Amino acid sequence: MLNLRLYMLQRITALLMAPLVLGHIAVMIYAIQGGLTAAEILGRTKGSVAWFAFYGLFVVAISIHGAIGMRVVMYEWAGFKGKWLEAFTYSLGFLLLIIGARAVWAVTFA
Amino acid sequence: MSDTNNKVIVKIQRGTAEKQEMASFDVPLHSNQTVLDLVSWVQQNEDPTLSYRFACRVGMCGSCAMMVNGVPRWTCRTHISKVLHRGEITIAPLQNLPVIKDLAVDMDPFFDKWIAAEGVHHSGRTRDDDIEMVDETSASRLEANSGIECINCSVCYAACDTVRNNPDFLGPAALQRAWTLLNDVKDEGRQSILDAVSGKGGCHNCHSIGSCTAFCPNELDPMSAIAGLKRETTKHFWRGGKSC
Amino acid sequence: MKHLNTSKTSKAHPLWLSHILHRLSGIGLSLFLPFHFLILALAMTNPDRLDQFLQITESPAVKFAEFGLVFLLAIHMFGGLRLMALEWLPWRPAQKTLAALAVSMSFFIAGIFFLKAI
């Protein structure tokens, strides 16, 4: 259930996230060497504008991309239509955005 | 397979849009039979009330398209050796279209979407103007040519999972036609075509599953045509064109 | 593009499989993400609880699940990039599928290697 605008948003966020995904996985591989602790994570990310920007952008992009992707799934496989479809799309988008932003905040400037 | 004492068990979906059921028939097996031969035999020898369509029976008109073992085909061009499975064949009406009776479906939605995709010639010149010359070697003409042999048989429409799950989706055939017109120098309806294929049933709903191209009996490639539409509408998007 | 004139009783041709994998991996990732975000936010509200979770992630079962997630991500991302290449670049279809396959496989292998290295 996509028109041109939603299609472009989906594609653009996808392209935006490609380098972010690679970066995230590289960081994870590095981070999990020798076990992982909260202190170790926070030691890296606390107070960092760079990490805030990186993961902040990631969260915004995934909120849009995931919401649009699941919109199509709910329409094609679960038969959601009209205002229910819109409500679902925005709800999922905002849910991901809010708890994602909260997580980013938790490890940077909380 | 040339022993005429052998029989084929032919299962045919009967009924109307409200109620369908499978009926089974034993049809004599011959060495050279198409699926259409089987259906015709049933109607001529077993049950004259069986409704089905065919016309040319030589693979030109597309009227005989049906689901054979779950796959859309031209039945006149399907030799039974290719689809016989343990002596059985299952035949059903084309998917994604409303059933009228037995194997005959209502083609109206297919053609309505053809029109909705602006698959109609948009002329601008009059008899007093010069004829627009077509360069047969140009890239856009070659693109158009690769899609114009569509005979509206609806096999691609029946094969498409996105058509099945998305009632608004215009479908591969209609979108392919829109693409051929977009590449036709004589067609002056560019903007209306781009708008028509950018709406909620437009080309952007295609997931490039490719069943259309895989099953087209004329070996056309609607999936690539739709990709072309996506490229064109994307370019338009960046140039601030309409169609939201 | 291969045209299927042989008897196929299903529509499970290669591009269809690619589509279904892309869709299922997307759904899987969407279901996983909220949990990921909620657990990570424990760094702010309850760091000890987060440390407990992180210790659990040392177990082989979780390592395997993590690898599964990375794999889902690889499938989804490379499948998506393949789709965009098919739509926007003037490549022939067969090359694109092969390209994506190659990249995806190498990612898979790299993923295993690195996760095993820890």
What does this structure look like?
The complex is a heterotrimer of chains A (110), B (244) and C (118). Chain A is mostly helical. Chain A has four helices and no strands. Chain A has a single domain, classed as 3 helical TM bundles of succinate and fumarate reductases, CATH 1.20.1300. Chain A is elongated and about 50 Å long. The model of chain B has no long low-confidence stretch (mean pLDDT 93). In chain B, 34% of the residues lie in helices and 15% in strands. In chain B, 46% of the residues are buried. In chain B, the strands form two sheets. Chain B has a five-stranded mixed β-sheet. In chain B, strands 6-7 form a two-stranded antiparallel sheet. Chain B is of the alpha+beta class. Helices cover 80% and strands 0% of the residues of chain C. Chain C has a single domain, classed as 3 helical TM bundles of succinate and fumarate reductases. In chain C, α1 crosses α4 and α4 runs antiparallel to α5. Classes of the chains: A mainly alpha (110), B alpha+beta (244), C mainly alpha (118).
